[in-house]
Design goal:
Blueprint: H1 3-7, E1 13-18, E2 56-65, E3 71-79, E4 83-92, E5 96-97, H2 99-105, E6 107-108, E7 112-116, H3 120-134, E8 148-152, H4 167-175, E9 194-195, E10 198-199, E11 202-211, E12 214-225, H5 239-242, E13 256-263, H6 269-277, H7 279-285, E14 295-302, H8 320-341, E15 345-346, E16 352-353, H9 358-367
Parallel strand pairs: 7-8, 13-14
Antiparallel strand pairs: 1-2, 2-3, 3-7, 4-6, 4-14, 5-8, 9-10, 11-12, 12-13, 15-16
């Protein structure tokens, strides 16, 4: 297949299979902690990323048509499977395709991918192709394997009607998965997204959870596309009320948050659903209320049991509050990372979404006594 056929977008399109911190994140944009802003009390993992959970890898495929209407991509999360899993819907104006088998069995048996709304089917098709290429006998097992695909609406910057994501783009994102640092902001499925009327997209964070003589890790990856400007809070500071300019050039709405939570703590599905619900609290700490039109859909999985065991090992509920705290803190920081790493972008019809100005953010945080 030649390059033009692969892109499916014409010669003016640009495709970035993003690895680690590679293109197209611009160097002037940084993560929240690089600004000196620390969320919560728990320690982070070495990368402060969902990939701090052993057995979890992330890759992106970013699609940008320079001078054109394409601002989208695919973000792939590949855990060690099968893994105990569960999902939770806070507000259901969105899609998390492929969760049926997971809900029936309590097991995640494929990768998780995020993209824009009209591309869910193509991404699912590509993910199945990728799975079959790795295991031609995939569907002969007792466990029904299925990828899970989530979406948020990118139409302000992106041509949703054109359905520019192809199955091969999902394959490329899955082929790009790696351990280590994860690119954030305007990459992968988050390329065309925004939060609180600022440019946003993909964000991630992690926390270490002390549980007696064991220390577990929880990591969160979000695709942020929600919230109204006056709602935005950073570590409790009403930043959105202080920055009232730099609004999207032609209005428009953003509503949804999709998220994946990973942990190496030995949690069973009923515990993982409780873990999922705590994403809502992390989201709320950034100011959001989950509006009527919002698609706030999340899943959580545990890598502790790579094969369905005959006898279960599970974390005692006496320790699970620590996991809850880790999810809340990591979700809050992941959302804020999606804002501080994203850059200003112009897309479909000349529509522009501005980046959160980091210099003004720091001034506001100092004025409220959060920074020296």
């Amino acid at each position: 297949m030649d390059r033009r056929t692969f892109l499916g977008l014409g010669l003016s399109a640009a495709v970035w299979p993003t690895l680690g911190r590679a293109a197209p994140v611009r160097p002037e944009r940084v993560r929240l902690r690089e600004l000196g802003i620390v969320i919560g009390e728990l320690a982070t993992g070495p990368y402060n990323s969902i990939t701090d959970v052993e057995g979890v890898q992330v890759g992106h495929l970013t699609l940008i048509e320079e001078g054109g209407p394409v601002r989208t991509g695919v973000t792939a999360i590949v855990p060690r499977t099968p893994a105990f899993a569960a999902d939770f819907t806070l507000n259901g104006n969105g899609e998390l395709m492929g969760v049926g088998s997971m809900r029936r069995t309590g097991l995640l048996a494929g990768p998780v991918l995020f993209t824009n709304t009209s591309s869910v089917g193509a991404v699912y098709d590509g993910a199945v192709e990728w799975m079959l290429a790795r295991d031609p006998d995939l569907f002969k097992s007792d466990l029904q394997p299925a990828p899970i695909v989530g979406e948020t609406w990118a139409a302000f910057l992106h041509d949703e009607v054109g359905r520019h994501v192809r199955p091969e783009h999902a394959v490329a994102a899955l082929d790009a998965v790696r351990d280590g640092p994860v690119a954030e902001g305007c990459v992968g499925g988050g390329t065309g997204m925004r939060a609180y009327s600022f440019k946003a997209g993909i964000g991630t964070a992690s926390r270490k959870i002390p549980c007696g003589d064991q220390v577990y890790t929880v990591g969160v990856l979000v695709q942020a596309n929600f919230g109204r400007r006056p709602q935005l809070r950073v570590d409790g500071v009403p930043v959105g009320r202080e920055i009232t300019d730099l609004m999207p050039a032609r209005g428009g709405k953003s509503k949804s948050l999709i998220a994946a939570v990973a942990t190496d703590a030995p949690l069973i599905p009923i515990q993982l659903q409780r873990v999922c619900k705590r994403v809502a609290l992390g989201m709320a700490r950034t100011g959001a209320i989950s509006t009527q039109g919002s698609g706030d859909l999340w899943l959580a999985f545990s890598t502790a049991s790579p094969e369905p065991p005959d006898a279960l090992t599970m974390l005692s509920d006496r320790w699970i509050s620590g996991v809850f705290q880790g999810v809340i803190e990591a979700t809050e920081e992941a959302i804020l990372n999606s804002l501080t790493t994203a850059h200003t972008m112009t897309g479909r019809g000349g529509n522009t979404i501005h980046a959160l100005p980091l210099d003004r953010l720091l001034e506001i945080m100092r004025a409220y006594g959060r920074l020296k």
